[in-house]
Amino acid sequence: MEKLAQYRQIVQQILQEYSEQKPAYGNIEVEKIFDTERDHYQIVHVGWEGQDWVHSCIIHIDIKSAKIWLQWNGTEDDIAANLVTAGVPKEDIVLGFQSPFMRKFTEYAVG
Fold it and tell me: Which H/E stretch holds residue 53?
């Protein structure tokens, strides 16, 4: 349970930093979505850029079976490397956006 609490804290801390970065253009709100009961965490952009509606998941992370699943990374940053820097071992990080076949060629967990 201690590991799970640590992973929750790390994920929330990393996503908190991204939630403070407002897009340079448009009237866009940055929503921080933390479902700590089911361990789903997202940063979502919602609003208007000119006449265009914006609704976009920027980062999506889940914690499943004591592993951190990076489901989506719409940033230019290496979120998995940020997790490692924060103390998460690579064998506890799954690149969920990679196909199960391709995961075995990464330096991270396969699932």
Answer: strand 52-64
Residues 18/75, Cβ–Cβ less than 8 Å: yes
Structural domain spans, the chain: 2-103
Q: What is the pTM of this model?
A: 0.93
Joined tokens for residue 3: 């590991």
CA–CA dist 32, 30 (Å, integer): 7
51: left (phi over 0), alpha (psi -120 to 50) or beta: alpha
Answer yes or no: are the C-beta atoms of 27 and 48 closer than 8 Å: yes
| pLDDT tens digits for range 44-71 | 999 999 999 999 999 999 999 999 999 9
As its CATH architecture, domain 2-103 has 2-Layer Sandwich (3.30)
pLDDT the model gives residue 21: 92
Burial class (CB in 10 A: 0-12, 13-18, 19+), 3: exposed
